[in-house]
Specification:
- The structure is a single chain.
- The termini are far apart.
- The relative contact order is 0.03.
- The chain is elongated.
- Among the domains are: about 45 residues; about 55 residues.
- The longest helix is centred in the C-terminal third of the chain and has 54 residues.
- By secondary structure, it is mainly alpha-helical.
- Keywords: Mitochondrion, Ribonucleoprotein, Ribosomal protein, Transit peptide.
- It is found in: Mitochondrion.
């Protein structure tokens, strides 16, 4: 008779053999992994052929253009006061020190162009002087401009150009009452009257100064003669 222990051992040994066969079959069926192919090194006898890099059209275009030099910075003007000078009498802040002059490059750029005032001339002044001006140069320019205008009028054959042009502030005409034309005429009249008033004020101030100077010159010999008379007495 076969004992129960022997039967259990035989069954257990069979199960172990089947499990080993089952676990080992997948590894045998899968193919081995393929290694990455390495480039074959050329032999020293075979020459190496290298293709030159292709250049694009943009690269050739940029290389053909000459390199432009960088613009040079404008030289700064030389200041009248050296750096570190104490500017006395210019401080208008209370309980603060006097300002100190700095180097030319430390000042802002707009400061160097503060005095570059561009004089805007009116239409009458742009023609070239004033016929009744105090300056001889302006009277000469006005006469030259008038002579050229007369020559152009004679060559053109238009008699209206030879007519005397009266300023708008001295004309006795009715201005337009409505529309944009009325606004333009009023604006032009205001500007002309303002210019005339300024010219009269300047002329009055100039004449006043000359009169005062003449009076001072006339007073000098009177005082000298009076002193001489007193000393003789």
């Amino acid at each position: 008779m076969i004992c129960s222990r022997c039967i259990k051992r035989s069954i257990f040994s069979r199960l172990q053999s089947q499990s080993r066969a089952f676990t080992s079959t997948p590894f045998l069926s899968t193919p081995p992994p393929t290694l990455p192919s390495t480039p074959s090194t050329p032999s020293p006898s075979s020459p190496l052929t290298t293709n030159p890099p292709t250049t694009t059209t943009t690269a050739t275009a940029t290389s053909s253009k000459p390199s432009q030099p960088a613009p040079k910075a404008a030289p700064l003007p030389t200041s009248s006061t050296p750096a570190g000078t104490i500017l006395k009498g210019l401080n208008f802040f209370k309980a603060k020190d006097e300002p100190v002059a700095m180097r030319e490059d430390e000042y802002p750029e707009w400061l160097w162009h503060c005095l570059d005032v561009k004089k805007v001339v009116d239409g009458d002044d742009a023609e070239g002087g004033d016929e009744f001006s105090k300056s001889k140069k302006l009277r000469r320019q006005a006469a030259k401009t008038k002579r050229k205008a007369t020559e152009r009028a004679l060559l053109s054959g238009d008699p209206s150009l030879l007519e005397v042009k009266v300023p708008i502030q001295q004309q006795s005409i009715d201005l337009a009452s409505e529309g944009e034309e009325a606004l333009d005429q009023r604006d032009h009249l205001k500007k002309a009257m303002r210019t005339e008033r300024r010219a009269k004020i300047k002329e009055g101030n100039y004449l006043k100064e000359t009169r005062e100077d003449d009076a001072k010159v006339k007073e000098i010999p009177i005082t000298e003669t009076a002193r001489a008379v007193k000393t003789n007495r």
